[in-house]
Each structure stands twice: as structure tokens, then as C-alpha cells.
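Q: Here's a chain of 562 amino acids. Please give me its 3D structure as C-alpha cells.
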Amino acid sequence: MAKISNYALVAFLAGGATLTSAECTGEISSFSGECNYQNFFDNRHADCDIDLLFDGTDPEEEVKKLCRYDAPVQFVEIQGTYQNDRRYFKGSGPLVDGGNYKQDSARLQRFETNMGSETLIGFPEYAARMTYNANNDLATADEPNGYPANMNLFASCQLNTVMCCFTDDSNGEGFASNGDATTDVCRHNLADSPQSNHIKYGWSVFPGTETPTHCTGFTWKDGEDELLGNMMYDISYRTTINKGYLKGVPGAPMCGCVEHMPTVEAAACRTATKTGEIEFTFSYEEGIVSASNTATINYQDCAVADLKKQYVANNAGDADKIAAIDDHLAGDGGCADDLTEYLNEEQFLHESKHVSKYVTPDPAEWSDLVVGEGIYFLPSDSEMAVADAAFRDLINAGCKEADGADRHCIIRRVCASCTSEPHRDIYYQRLTALPPSGTNTTEVYLINTFMNSWSKTPANDMAAGDFALYSTYQRSVPYQHFHEQLVEDSANDMAAGDFALYSTYQDALDGTNAWTWCDYGTEGVYGFPRNCGVTTYMHNQWNSYKRGGAYANHHGFYVELP
């Protein structure tokens, strides 16, 4: 099988692998199995000198890039341009909105007929996204990527689950004729997909009956990512070309990681497998080393044909991960309860008191509200020095250990709108002396540390013993590594021990079950507790009085009374 190589992305990353050996032309290496440097080296043509082949560049690094960006068919090659893919995934563009479906889908049909089941396809990445992702905390210099909006495997796909939802079956035989079940659409947080709907904040709910909607997706275990591009192709373009399904839920992407998709009751589950090994071929043509592949790919339903059930099966034994999918797949008949919960959170249409939301601390044990937002709204004193002095007085009011020893009074944040259960009620126990109040490098307005500037220095280091954190949530390894890198790059260290964080007041008093993972934000940008979590990273539970973008829109701070 011939592959029309797309050099745009690999050239952007590798600069093109230039060949200078006149004796080494055409096919220079072919092998089956994993695409890596060792297999490339072991199976290279006898006339190919590695040093001449890559002309002074690092051969291992060049082959690594070729294996990632050129050996698989790049997603952009299927429809032709990044803009066509971008617009399709958001639910628009020529294929979705064009006037002639047969003409607009002809290229896709040719690919499906000739290559759809005969090649390894890379997960969508684009040269046009490389710089944007690097500049927006969606990639790092050590781990660049070109993932598109709403499906960044590095930064926002921690549940390892991708889904497409279609509301138009008019270009084919229809959902029912194809045996594809439709689902109830519950709601969508518009802030989860601003690059698709161009709305920064907002939400939509879909009570009652909507347009018939079919959702389908795939889910995978860590390390089982070889065929993710093929699975993405299967639930998107392949579904469109073979069944005529188009158009997404209003305000939501048509395809994306479930964290960016609307909440629905159910979705079909698809997967891809290969027969035999994938064959890789490296060639030299016109001064460029390129790579291609041939494979036999099988597309089929998952072992468990329901996406949520397959996700649960994949994560058996991990209660926290299993619970996390409920916010995206409500289960059959689950929209009614999901909407009640969601409206209680977003509009505060309380039908009953939630066990962990809308908490009012006992005034016999806790101070009056110090500062807060939303339903806990109370601004701080306009003079930060005055606000900080009052805050410090509460912390230093004379709280005691059980044995009578002096200690700092505990700071408590309640958060009605936080989506993570442990983050709805957090207790900050100071373990070391408070840093001086002020604006010099060794001084800090502590109240602002909690409001807007959750930072490690001065003297707010979990690892130094200044504090501790407590909670339980697991996150996928790639994004966790990314934030550990942020911690290292900004000299953040969780082991210094200035404080501890706890999920219950009793844990804080006893010094048990402290949180074990913490990071810090860019100064003046993110407030308490940035991405700190019980055992690992937890996104968007921070508050800020200067910017939006997280879930802690309704929170308040209190201090323990002596």
C-alpha cells in the first residue's frame, strides 16, 4: 500500500530528515512490530550509513519523530486540511454545513474504501496547534504536541474516553435502521468547550424531549494507546461516511474528550484491533526520509457495548475513577436526577439540602465569613494590609492542641460549586510561623495567598511543613507529569511542610489523612488551592477574585474560633 506522506507536521517537529548518501535510495528499512529506532537500525539497508542518512542530526530522535508523525497516516490527510478537521470536530464546516454532501464527502469515501481498514492512523495532531499548545499550558518544551481543541490527550483527557454525538441522520438510512440507539441529552457546561462555541461562561440544559441523538465513543486503559487514531477515525469520519451522521448538540463539540462533551445518558462503545503486526517502511525520496505503514485493522463494538459500562470495567477497583464518569454519562434514565443536581449547583433551585454543598459553618466554632464569592459574597477590605491584619488576628487567636500546646487556628474554605467532593470543604492547618505581612520578597499578604496568589513563597510550602492537604482523586499519568514539571520549574516543593490540608475538621485536629499532592500557580493568577488534591492533581477547583475559569465561583473562607 502506498501512503501519501504529509510532511507538514513532521517537518515542523523534525525539520525534515535529510539524506546525503547517494547509495542509499528508495526503501531503506522495513520491519514489523513497534516503530522505534532499534527496529529501524536492525532492518536498515546494508548500503545505508546512519551518520550519512541523518546528516549530523540525532538518528534516534529523528526516527522517534518519524514514527510518531509520519509513519501513521496523519488525521489531516484524511479530509485534507487542519481547518476542515477543526470545523468538523466542532460540528460545522463544509462536510457538515455544505450544500452537496456527496461531493464534500468524496475524499473521505475514497480513504475509507482504499485505506480505512488497512493502515495505522495517528491521533489528530496539527502543526498549526504546536505553538498555541506550548503557549497555553497544553504542552511542554520536552513534550510538544499538536492536539486540537477538546481532545488534548496531554492536558484534558484524563478519563481516557472520547465521544462523538450526532443529531442528524438524514444523509443515511437513519439511527433506527442502523440499529443505533439514541440517548437523552442532559446538559452542557458551555465553559467546557469555549473553542467550539466561542462562549467563555454559561450552561445549557435539555429537559423533556430533544432531537434524536446518537452518541458513540471509545475508552482505553493507560498504555493501550496504539490504535487511538483508528478508534477516533471510526467514531467520527468513518461513522459519517458509512452512516451519514452529522451535526452535534447545540453549544457543544461534535467530537471530543468526554470532559468537553455534553452530559448524556448513554453512548455506544467502539474499539479497534489489529490482525498480525503493523508493517513499517522507511524510504528516501528527493532528499527526505519518510515513513509509512500497512496494517489490517478491525473495527467493532467493545466487549461491553455501552461506553460507561466499558469504562467501569476498564477501571475496576478504582472507585474514584469510576465515580468520575458519572458527570459525563448519567446512565439510562439518569438525566432527571443529573439535572436536579446540576440546577441546584448552577441556579440554586434547592429541592433539598445537599450533604456536602451549601454548608454554613457552626458560628460557635467558626468565625464570621472572612471573604467569599457567589452565594458567600463578601469582599475583603479595600486596603489589603488592613484585611491581612484582621485575617492574621483570627489565625493567631489562641487555638490549642489537645495537650494544651499553642497552635494556629485552622482556615476553612467551603465551596458549594466545586465539582470535586473533597474540595467542597477544605481545612488548612498552618504548621510553621506565618511569614511577615507586606510586599517585600520575604513578606506576603496571607489573605491574598488564599484569594488570588496561591504560591509557595514566602513560607507556604507543603513540603517544608508549613501546611498539608487531604483528598482522594486519581489523574491520568501524562497530565500529572505535566504539573509535576510545573512544580519543578517554579521551584515548588510539596515536602517542605509549611501547612497541611484536610478534608474534615476532625482529620485536621488529629493530623490524619492529610492530602499528599500540591502545586502552586503563577503569582497573582490562581488562588487556593490551585491544583492540590488528596493524592494527585485535581483541576479547576481553585478560586480567584481576579479571573474566572474554574468551578469555585461560590465559596467562602472562615477561621476556627479558639
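Q: Can you summarize the key feature?
A: Residues 175 and 206 are 20 Å apart (CA to CA).
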